[in-house]
Every structure is written in structure tokens, then in C-alpha cells.
Automatic annotation (TrEMBL):
GO terms for biological process: cyclic threonylcarbamoyladenosine biosynthetic process. The keyword Mitochondrion applies. Keywords: ATP-binding, Ligase, Membrane, Mitochondrion, Mitochondrion outer membrane, Nucleotide-binding, Transmembrane, Transmembrane helix. It comes from the Eukaryota. Its main location: mitochondrion. SUPFAM superfamilies: Activating enzymes of the ubiquitin-like proteins. This is THIF-type NAD/FAD binding fold domain-containing protein.
Length: 499
């Protein structure tokens, strides 16, 4: 496209200059050169401005964009029918016939609850589009769609309703236009916007006086995702979140459970940690996969070296701070995630019974690790001449779970073993590691980024030689272990700023 622009600009410049020279023929060469320079500058400048305007208009062309969308006769009829149906000019018996299978499954009362509900879906890509399609086909009457992005060619391997004709159009309008042909009575409110903390009040506001009955998070940007979930949690708006479907391929590993139990997914991990820093530790249902990476499985692809050589790779992102690497996605998995999300919302809104298979819960293990840590601190206090009776440590079982699962991935940093785990200080503390300023109360000043995960046997040895002995960790462990611990502590310190 750019080559075409320059070719046309060059041709136009040549023709115009030749014409100017032939018609006006200045009396001296200097005047002729000035004229040619001025005319060339105007033409080239106009061509450049035109090219820039075109690039803005066709910004996504190289990546699958299109010049626009033109309504066919069928599209126009669908639009007109949907407009009449939303005003009530559509036989309710026809709607009930279309929803007949849902009606006998959910009962009349359940279907009525679904038909009178208002659901907000944030993120209208592979996951969100399938959730929206399922909700509309099941009878949800009010849907607010929020997404800043456009349909691209690469979207078509996983999007629920987009076609080639939709490439280059906003995802929210693509979904509305296609689903109006299926459920013309549905009220779609489309917001071609990026969700953010500053706009949450408006984006999750009532629709026609009705508060959202449910919110679906199908966002893959961590900042927007955390902002949405935190807002819903703090404002008591029912919400369900989809974790990452990228690089996943095993549908049998899919779970619906509390966010505190989700594992084996980088997006889930980052979301949990950021929410925990905001005081949200549990109470948000999520759809997640426990599938682990392995040999031969897809991974997040790095950018080609030639892209780095061109300069700032952030120029490749759609918006500032958005990922620019390629996330491999098997087209079926976002659909499975989206349908699982929609299924949960339907069951919740209709009151249909649902007891999900629980994901792993290791609360008893965390309690045991916390008790062992209490013992380590009490022995350390006695060793340093303190009265350890009634000593308190500033950690909870949730903190223990966070350190064990999120920071150390359920394994000893020394040996990599995953059994008989405990937490213990890495360095010998300073002499004033007990706070006795409050009368009758003794508190350990232990910080989370001072702890490492080991097996019980390793911790006993570490306690004897480092915490109560004269050795430094660097004297006891090889460089690999020391470097691994330093990385973990820096990682935890970086996340501590969110607390």
C-alpha cells in the first residue's frame, strides 16, 4: 500500500512539474528551479499527509484490517427487524418457541429471570464473543458490550460470529450486528472503549434504570482485568472472570472455582497477586485450566530479532503497555472458556443447582506450615535471649499459601522437592527483630520477602547452621540456589508495593 502511495505521488509530481514548465517557461534557470522546488514540495507534502491519513484510516490493514462495512439488503432487513423487535413489535410466542428448550430445562420461572436480566461483558474477543452469543441465544434481554478493539483476520480462528466482512470493524458492533439476526429482541448497548478504573462507574452503570445482574470479565490485559474485578468485588456486583486460554489445549483440565484456587496460568497468577495486594483474596469465581506446559506444547512466542532492531517494540502494541508478543491460541479453547463462563452466569441468574468439582485445596497444609514457622520464630527468639511466650507473627494461612504457591510454585528452592514443605527465614535476623513496644504483647517483625520455601529437613539444617549458627547462606548453598532465592525475594518485593 505504501509503495502504491509513493508511486502515485512521484507520478503526480512529475506530471505537475512538467506541465508547469511547459506552460510558464521562466526566463531564467534560477526562477525555473524555484518553481519546480515549490511545486514538488507542495505535491510531496500533500502525498505524505494523504498517506498518513490513509494509514490512520487503515491502521490495521497490514494485520487484517479492512476499509469499512457496507450493509447488504439482508443486513438492512435484519437491522429494521431488530429495531421493531426492541420496541415490542415481535410476537412473544415466537420468542418462547425459539427458547423452548431452555424453557423446559430452566422452567418458566427460570427463563423469566434470564429474560429480564442485564449482563455486562467486558472483552469481546474469542472468549467474550462465545459467552455473548450463548447468553443472547439463551434469552438474556439486555447486554452491554465493552471492547476497544477491532476484528482482524487473525481473530477469525476463534471469534464466535465474525466473518471476513467484519474485518476492520469494532468487535462490539460486529457482535451486535450478527446476533441481531439471531435474537432481534435483545437490547445491545455497544461501547467501543477500553475498560479502566477511571471509567468503571460509567461503564458499569445501570441500563434503563436496571443495575447489572452479572458482569463477565473476558479481558486479557492485566491492568484492566484487575480494575474490573476489584471494582465488582468492592461494589458487590456478581462477576466471573476468564483466565488465560492461550497455550491451552486440554478441555478436561478446565475448572470453575474461586480465584484463590486457580493455578498453572500466568494471567491467573498475576491477577491473584495484584488483587491480593488490593485486599481481595477470594470470593471471585473464575474459569481456569490446570493444564501444565510441557515438551512440544505451545509457548508464548518472542518477537523476531528484526523487530527489536527497528527500535522501540512498544510501537507495535495496540495501546501503551499492551503485550506485543504473539500468544498461540488453539481456536477451540477460547470457545470452551467462553461457553463455561456463560453457563455459570445462566445457572446463577436462574437459580439452577450447580456443585462444581472442587480444585485442589491445601488449607490444612498452609495451617501446618504456619505452625512450623511459629515454632522457628519462637526458637530463634529464645536463642537471642527473648521471652518467646505469646510471640505473634504477622502472617496468615493466606499469606503462607501465596508464598508457597505463587512465589515458590509449591517446591523447595533448595532441592525442588514438593513434599513436607515449610517456610523459614533466609538470613539471620538483626537483634531487634522482636517488637515489644505494646505492653503485654510481643510481635515478630518478620516480613514476607525474608522467607524461603524448603523441606522440613532442609529447614532444620538451615536453622542450625545459619539462623542460630555462624554461616551465611552463601557459605552453605551453591550459586544456583543463592541466585534463585535472590530472584524470588526481588519478585516478592516488587509485588509488595501493591499491598
Amino acid at each position: 500500500m505504501m509503495a502504491s502511495w509513493f508511486s502515485k505521488a512521484t507520478t503526480a509530481t512529475t506530471n505537475l512539474v512538467t506541465s508547469s514548465a511547459n506552460h510558464h517557461r521562466p526566463q531564467n534557470n534560477q526562477a525555473q528551479l524555484v518553481t519546480v522546488a515549490v511545486v514538488s514540495g507542495v505535491v510531496v507534502g500533500t502525498a505524505i499527509l494523504g498517506m498518513q491519513k490513509a494509514l490512520r484510516m487503515y491502521k490495521l490493514t497490514e494485520y487484517g484490517g479492512a476499509s469499512g462495512w457496507f450493509a447488504s439488503a439482508e443486513d438492512k432487513r435484519s437491522i429494521e427487524l431488530a429495531a421493531r423487535a426492541r420496541k415490542g413489535d415481535y410476537d412473544d410466542e415466537l420468542i418462547l418457541e425459539q427458547l423452548a428448550r431452555n424453557r423446559v430445562f430452566l422452567t418458566d420461572e427460570g427463563l423469566e429471570s434470564l429474560r429480564s436480566s442485564f449482563v455486562v461483558v467486558v472483552g469481546c474477543g474469542g472468549v467474550g464473543s462465545h459467552a455473548i452469543a450463548a447468553l443472547a441465544r439463551s434469552g438474556v434481554s439486555k447486554l452491554r458490550l465493552i471492547d476497544f478493539d477491532q476484528v482482524t483476520l487473525s481473530s477469525l480462528n476463534r471469534h464466535a460470529v465474525a466473518t471476513l466482512a467484519d474485518v476492520g470493524t469494532p468487535k462490539v458492533h460486529c457482535i451486535r450486528r450478527r446476533l441481531e439476526q439471531v435474537t432481534p429482541w435483545t437490547h445491545f448497548e455497544c461501547r467501543n472503549e477500553l475498560f479502566g478504573e477511571d471509567t468503571a462507574d460509567s461503564q458499569l452503570a445501570p441500563m434503563d434504570g436496571q443495575e447489572p445482574d452479572f458482569v463477565i470479565d473476558a479481558i486479557d490485559n492485566i491492568d484492566s482485568k484487575v480494575a474490573l474485578l476489584n471494582y465488582c468485588y468492592k461494589n458487590k456486583i456478581p462477576v466471573i472472570s476468564s483466565m488465560g486460554a492461550g497455550c491451552k489445549s486440554d478441555p478436561t483440565k478446565l475448572f470453575i472455582g474461586d480465584i484463590s484456587a486457580s493455578t498453572d496460568d500466568p494471567l491467573s497468577k498475576s491477577t491473584r497477586r495484584r488483587l491480593r495486594a488490593l485486599g481481595v483474596k477470594q470470593g471471585i469465581p473464575v474459569v481456569f485450566s490446570t493444564e501444565k506446559p510441557g515438551p512440544g506444547k505451545a509457548e508464548l512466542l518472542p518477537l523476531p530479532e528484526e523487530e527489536y532492531a527497528k527500535g522501540s517494540v512498544t510501537d507495535l502494541s495496540v495501546l501503551p503497555d499492551f503485550r506485543v508478543r504473539i500468544l498461540p491460541v488453539l481456536g477451540t479453547m477460547p470457545a470452551i472458556f467462553g461457553l463455561a463462563v456463560a453457563n455459570h452466569v445462566i445457572l446463577e441468574l436462574t437459580g439452577y443447582p450447580h456443585d462444581y468439582l472442587p480444585a485442589k485445596s491445601r488449607d490444612k497444609m498452609y495451617d501446618g506450615i504456619l505452625g512450623a514457622l511459629q515454632g522457628f520464630e519462637e526458637r530463634l527468639a529464645k536463642h537471642n535471649g527473648f521471652d518467646a511466650q505469646g510471640l505473634r507473627i504477622p502472617l496468615t494461612p493466606e499469606d503462607v499459601g501465596y508464598l508457597v504457591e505463587e512465589v515458590y510454585h509449591g517446591r523447595s528452592v533448595i532441592s525442588g522437592l514438593a513434599t513436607r514443605l515449610c517456610l523459614v527465614r533466609w538470613h539471620r535476623p538483626s537483634e531487634d527483630f522482636i517488637d515489644k513496644r505494646t505492653p503485654g504483647q510481643k510481635n515478630s517483625l518478620l516480613q514476607m520477602n525474608e522467607l524461603v520455601c524448603m523441606t522440613k529437613e532442609e529447614a532444620v539444617k538451615h536453622e542450625k547452621k545459619v539462623l542460630m549458627g555462624r554461616k551465611a547462606p552463601e557459605d552453605l548453598y551453591d550459586r544456583r540456589v543463592v541466585d534463585a532465592v535472590n530472584r524470588k525475594m526481588l519478585e516478592e518485593e516488587a509485588f509488595s508495593r501493591y499491598r
